[in-house]
């Protein structure tokens, strides 16, 4: 047996050869992997069929379809309302991925008029041009959404929602809060991102304190909290006591406390499981 776990160079050469074989299997039903002197002077040779490759990766292919189904649910759309299915990313060249997507959409012809390796770059360029006010793209509408729900921590560590997940941006939401204790002179505004009802399981984006609240029995002061997200994904959070005429705010940039795609997906899955 050839063990190469500790040989980083050999691992990289093997990965490169496997990537090349994966691409070949998009056009051929069988291919070989050949590497001279892979490790310790030993050559490596193997053959793999498309059927074997598909069987080895069936769980990943299923995740692709599940992701598309999730997008449809989040957008509250049905398959019949989709005009075109555009393939994005080099992996969509894999025949099994194409066939699974086509089956999911009841045999609908897939759109392959754009190079799947360049789709994201095209979209990013168009989005940048729209944001910069390019006159040639005045009629182009690109819709961005919040990947996770946004809210504040309230008594008991409860996540009180202001902006739900998948809300189209730019957006602005307001909600009125009050004090928890008699004669409370300040409130702490803690901004969270996530899908759990408990802020302990969500992601803290930022916090600030609003001082100078007029002392009164609990429940009497009215604190107006506003979340406003612009087209660039930058969020302004403000809290205002209109009676005392006191206002504080913070700005949360797109990358502040930003979660990875995997962390966002985990939060969504955990929330769906809890429900």
Structural features, described:
By secondary structure, the protein is an alpha+beta fold. Among the domains are: 8-52, ATPase, substrate binding domain, subdomain 4 (Actin, Chain A, domain 4); 145-252, Substrate Binding Domain Of DNAk, Chain A, domain 1, CATH 2.60.34. The chain is built from six helices and twelve strands. The protein has helices spanning 8-24, 50-56, 58-74, 95-104, 119-131, 261-274; strands spanning 30-39, 42-49, 144-145, 150-154, 158-163, 168-169, 171-177, 187-193, 203-210, 223-229, 235-241, 246-252. It has a four-stranded antiparallel sheet, with no helix packed on it. It has a four-stranded antiparallel sheet with strand order 7-10-11-12, with no helix packed on it. A hairpin with a 5-residue loop joins β10 (223-229) and β11. It is elongated, with a radius of gyration of 26 Å. The model has no long low-confidence stretch (mean pLDDT 88). Keywords: ATP-binding, Nucleotide-binding. GO terms for molecular function: ATP binding; ATP-dependent protein folding chaperone. InterPro entries: ATPase_NBD, Heat_shock_70_CS, HSP70_peptide-bd_sf, Hsp_70_fam.
Task: Offer a quick outline of the entry.
This is Heat shock protein 70. The chain has 275 residues and is an alpha+beta fold.
